[in-house]
Design the sequence.
C-alpha cells in the first residue's frame, strides 16, 4: 500500500513481484564476478566515493525529470536499460524507456502533477562495476496532496561511467 495525505492506494501484486525480483537481483550483484576479478578491481574501487557519485547522479536525474529533460536523462541510461512502472508492461531498451519516460512526463504535465525522488542508500559491488540504490519518491497531485512511494535502481559501469541498467518504482 502507498500512503498519501488523503487516501491509501493499493499496490498490485505484479508490481510487488517485479520489485522483489529486482531487489534479489541487485542484492546478488556483488557475487557475480570471479575472485581474480574481485581482487584486481576492488584494489582500485573506492566504495565511498562511488556511493557519493551514485547519490549525486540520482539527485541530478530527479532534477532532470522535474524539468522534463529527456535528453539529459538519456545520457544516464544504459543501452539495455529496463524500466518497470506500475500498470505498464516493462519498457526494455533505451528507445522504449525514453518513450515511456516521455509518456509519463506528458501525462504528469497534462494533469498538473510533479514527481521527485531522493536517494537513501547506495551499495557498490566489490568489483566496482555494478551497484544499486534505493530511496523515496513523492508525486504532488493537482490538489496539492502528496503520494509517497519508493524506488530501486540498478547501475552498471559502461566505459567508466555509471549508467542505469534497471529502474523500478511504485
Sequence:
Amino acid at each position: 500500500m502507498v500512503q498519501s495525505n488523503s487516501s491509501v492506494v493499493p499496490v498490485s501484486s505484479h508490481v510487488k513481484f517485479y520489485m522483489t525480483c529486482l531487489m534479489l537481483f541487485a542484492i546478488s550483484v556483488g557475487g557475480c564476478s570471479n575472485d581474480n576479478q574481485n581482487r584486481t578491481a576492488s584494489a582500485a574501487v573506492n566504495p565511498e566515493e562511488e556511493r557519493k557519485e551514485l547519490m549525486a547522479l540520482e539527485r541530478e536525474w530527479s532534477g532532470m525529470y522535474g524539468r522534463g529533460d529527456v535528453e539529459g536523462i538519456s545520457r544516464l541510461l544504459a543501452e539495455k536499460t529496463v524500466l518497470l512502472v506500475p500498470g505498464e508492461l516493462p519498457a526494455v531498451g533505451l528507445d522504449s524507456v525514453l518513450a515511456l519516460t516521455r509518456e509519463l512526463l506528458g501525462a504528469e504535465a497534462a494533469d498538473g502533477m510533479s514527481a521527485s525522488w531522493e536517494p537513501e542508500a547506495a551499495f557498490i559491488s566489490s568489483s566496482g562495476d555494478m551497484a544499486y540504490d534505493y530511496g523515496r519518491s513523492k508525486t504532488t497531485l493537482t490538489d496539492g496532496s502528496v503520494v509517497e512511494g519508493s524506488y530501486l535502481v540498478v547501475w552498471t559501469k559502461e566505459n567508466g561511467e555509471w549508467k542505469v541498467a534497471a529502474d523500478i518504482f511504485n
In short: The CA atoms of residues 48 and 88 lie 35 Å apart.
